[in-house]
Write a structure and sequence with these properties.
3 helices; 85 residues; alpha+beta; Glutaredoxin
Length: 85
């Protein structure tokens, strides 16, 4: 288990998408919100189509947190992202 210095678990975040503008904006938004909230994350960009489909995501960008798909299709609203952290 990943633990930060304060003993809180580090969230594993994956942004699923083929590199489109919406995918890049979603990565930037997730990074920004995590930084603003002081939440440590590991962020991975998944661009392999087979891997994306393995999560059942048919519309990108998709966001997976700790193995759970929390969003797919379009850039998530900032308030929604804040709720994840």
């Amino acid at each position: 288990m990943n633990l930060s210095k304060k003993g809180k678990r580090i969230k594993n975040v994956k942004v699923l998408g083929t590199g489109c503008a919406n995918c890049k904006n979603t990565v930037a938004l997730v990074e920004q919100v995590a930084r603003e909230k002081g939440v440590q994350i590991t962020l991975e960009k998944v661009e392999d189509l087979q891997a994306i489909m393995g999560y059942g995501v048919m519309s990108t960008p998709g966001v997976v947190i700790d193995g759970v798909v929390v969003h797919s299709g379009g850039i998530p609203a900032k308030g929604k992202v804040e709720g994840w952290f």
